[in-house]
Design goal:
Layout lengths: L3 E5 L3 H14 L4 E5 L2 H10 L3 E7 L8 H10 L4 E6 L4 H9 L5 E3 L4 H12 L3 E2 L22 H11 L4 H8 L3 H15 L4 H12 L19 E2 L4
Parallel strand pairs: 1-2, 1-3, 3-4, 4-5, 6-7
């Protein structure tokens, strides 16, 4: 089946700009366009060849992250990538928790956007490099509870004394992504260090029913994660 990109943005220039950048990574790429959530839903319902949807977070009718979550739930076969002007870590984390397969800031240079699109086109997940900066803790708007399947895997590896690098190798994800998960675990478990996380792990092991079914997407995907060239 032919693969196709969907680009959804109210701005014609933004849509055409993304189309042009997609053509730099695939010469004969097929791209369909939409300027509202209704248009996105119509295309995804009718065109089964669309496997990547690049959606502006401010798209008319989307309703922000709630709309992204709706798309992930109703079209699980489509990889959803969010575009937005903001490059805030808390916003990126919220999008990741909603199950996106990439977050692209419109303020990024064209070459970085191309690199992000190449990462996504190779069926990896793109995370902006700001998410792996040392010395900063990811800011959640609310505790990400209960734990996702991937967070549980990171926590189990952490409990065995593995370093972030070792966890990344074991789970086949980037070290930067492990850092995101570790920070998320500290928030979710109400702890401030690995010792506290290990203690909480013992409690979780005794109550596995507390976990919720994972939503398909970045925080639960067993695949490589890209930010620049991780």
């Amino acid at each position: 089946m032919e693969h196709c990109f969907l680009v959804a943005d109210e701005g014609v220039l933004c849509r055409e700009g993304l189309v042009a950048l997609l053509q730099r990574i695939r010469r004969n790429v097929r791209v369909v366009q939409a300027n509202s959530l209704a248009g996105v839903i119509e295309i995804l319902s009718d065109d089964r060849s669309v496997d990547v949807a690049i959606v502006d977070l401010g798209l008319s009718g989307l309703g922000g992250i709630d709309g992204v979550r709706h798309l992930r739930t109703h079209f699980p076969q489509v990889r959803i990538v969010v575009t937005a002007t903001a490059l805030r870590r808390d916003l990126i984390v919220d999008c990741l928790r909603a199950g996106v397969h990439g977050y692209i800031s419109k303020t990024m240079p064209a070459e970085e956007i191309v690199e992000a699109l190449e990462t996504i086109d190779s069926k990896r997940i793109f995370v902006p490099s700001v998410m792996s900066e040392e010395g900063e803790e990811v800011g959640f708007r609310e505790p990400p509870r209960p734990l996702s399947e991937r967070q549980r895997e990171v926590l189990a590896a952490l409990a065995t004394g593995k370093s972030n690098k070792e966890i990344a190798w074991q789970l086949r994800i980037s070290e930067g992504t492990v850092k995101v998960h570790v920070h998320a675990l500290f928030r979710a478990l109400g702890v401030h260090n690995r010792v506290g996380a290990v203690a909480a792990f013992m409690d979780i092991e005794s109550a596995p029913a507390a976990l919720e079914p994972p939503l398909p997407g970045l925080l639960h995907a067993r695949q490589q994660v890209g930010h620049r060239r991780i």
